[in-house]
Write a structure and sequence with these properties.
transmembrane, 79% helix, Sodium/glucose cotransporter, mainly alpha
Length: 477
């Protein structure tokens, strides 16, 4: 019965993809849902894209390892959404562009778009990979099939519905997924596992005082999560692309704030589920297996099917968002910019494009990224590992140039290129030398980016006034 529930859910997702395809008539429809989302739909789609495999499967796994303090990874994601919505989202929404790299070109002038596009494409691909790893583990446990066909099954469904209708399909499926994961996590799984584990007093007595210590995971780990995830949420293409869908700056700010608060609650819920799972299903060695194990242990088949559908909802919404984000950046800011440089064509910096050819190209690149994410998922052992790689590269390479463009008038294209290259190279080298989960890659990478950005900007000529005037005009829209 639980398998039947999940299969019905997957079929419904493809159905929404077909429905969304009928609403997609232009590039603006395909990439940003026509920039027409109101508060309810915007909240649902933004929450769905940030609360994916690492937040659900990974968040429960961290709760299993560290108790309540395992909440900090997802909690920092929520803080990032709150900061983005209050301070930057209205400004971003008014730009009327499609990608983060286009913002850099608007602010600094030509020269950074391809380099930043490559970094952002790699980030999008790794985010998609985290979700692919997660739903592979869910299908493996649910259907009893090997990991490879499990990944291929889930990946194919995500690619199909995302490819058909683009952001309209993803928005519709995201909203349904948001409702399912809210009911499944908050109203079903959390109360059931807490009760079956004997309540909070029994859990504390069994596991000891550290189970509910909010900082037991360690101050340095919490600070690293803040640097990687809170700051990373300010600049991710998958997040910005959702901001572009809002119909007004007010929707982007206040609906985004409600999403951030929801994420904080989701962080606590996931950590508590993982903490209770230590009592119910002790001895699990792979943290990504905890979610399916505690669901199987605690529930009758029908409820288990619904909760597993909730996990799939969280995972697939992030996967689809990352696929359209990564493929959009790669097509517009890498492939098409390379072609424009060769032919001298005009630069695309937003606006409605009715070309069916461009929508078709977007579909092709989304499929390519989907296939690549499934391939990477076969060699990535952990959703948290893949997420850490993604955000290390993103934050070290692009945080300083992007935030600098929004708040530092003296920043220049020379500083941008220096900051991106220094931050990315330093972080990648340190991940190889010190390990993916070490603190030094993000610390040193971010420091290198700050120094290179400031030195490069102050040592070069200021950004030309016509570029800054065009930037100011966009922000006044």
């Amino acid at each position: 019965m639980d398998i039947a529930v999940v299969l019905i859910y997957l079929a419904a997702m493809i159905g929404f993809g077909i429905w969304g395809m009928r609403r997609t008539r232009s590039q603006e429809d395909y990439l940003v849902a026509g920039r027409r989302l109101g508060p309810l739909m915007y909240t649902g789609t933004l929450a769905a894209v940030v609360l994916g495999g690492a937040s659900t499967v990974g968040g429960v796994g961290l709760g299993y390892e560290f108790g309540l303090s395992g909440m900090w990874l997802v909690f920092c994601i929520g803080l990032g959404i709150i900061a983005l919505s209050l301070f930057f989202a209205p400004k971003i929404q008014r730009l009327e562009i499609y990608t983060v790299s286009q913002m850099l070109e608007l602010r600094y002038g030509r020269g950074s778009r391809q380099v930043s596009g490559i970094i952002m494409s790699a980030y999008g691909l790794m985010i998609a990979t985290t979700s692919t790893v997660a739903y592979g583990s869910i299908f493996h446990a649910l259907l009893g099939i090997d990991r490879i066909p499990a990944i291929l099954l889930g990946g194919s469904v995500v690619v199909i519905y995302s490819m058909l209708g683009g952001m309209w399909s993803i928005t519709l499926t995201d909203f349904v997924q948001f409702v399912i994961q809210t009911i499944g996590i908050f109203l079903i799984l959390l109360p059931i596992v807490i009760v079956q584990a004997g309540g909070f007093s029994e859990i504390g007595a069994t596991l000891g005082p550290d189970a509910f210590d909010p900082v037991a995971i360690g101050g340095s780990t919490i600070f690293t999560y803040f640097l990687i995830y809170t700051l990373g949420l300010l600049i991710g293409q998958d997040i910005w692309q959702r901001v572009f869908t809002a119909r007004s700056p007010g929707v982007a700010r206040w609906a985004g704030l409600s999403t951030g608060l929801y994420c904080l609650l989701y962080a606590v819920a996931g950590a508590l589920i993982g903490t209770a799972a230590q009592v119910l299903v002790p001895g699990i060695e792979v943290s990504d297996d905890v979610f399916t194990a505690v669901v199987d242990h605690s529930m009758a088949p029908l409820l288990a099917g619904f909760v597993l559908a909730a996990a799939l909802a969280a995972v697939m919404s992030t996967a689809s968002g990352a696929l359209i984000a990564g493929s959009t950046v790669f097509r517009q800011d890498v492939v098409e910019q390379w072609g424009a440089r060769r032919t001298g064509a005009a630069q695309d910096l937003g606006g409605v494009d009715e070309s069916a050819d461009r929508v078709g190209a977007s579909r092709i690149w989304l499929v390519v990224f989907g296939i690549a994410s499934m391939g990477l998922a076969l060699v990535m052992p952990s959703v948290v590992e893949a997420l850490t790689v993604a955000y290390n590269i993103l934050v070290a390479g692009l945080l300083i140039p992007i935030i600098g463009g929004l708040v530092f008038r003296r920043g220049t294209i020379v500083g941008v290129l220096a900051g991106m290259i220094a931050g990315t190279v330093t972080t990648v080298v340190m991940m190889i030398v010190a390990g993916i989960f070490a603190d030094s890659p993000i610390y040193l990478g971010l420091a290198a980016s700050i120094v290179a950005y400031l030195v490069g900007s102050l040592a070069s000529r200021p950004t030309p006034e016509p570029v800054l005037a065009a930037w100011d005009e966009r922000l006044r829209r």
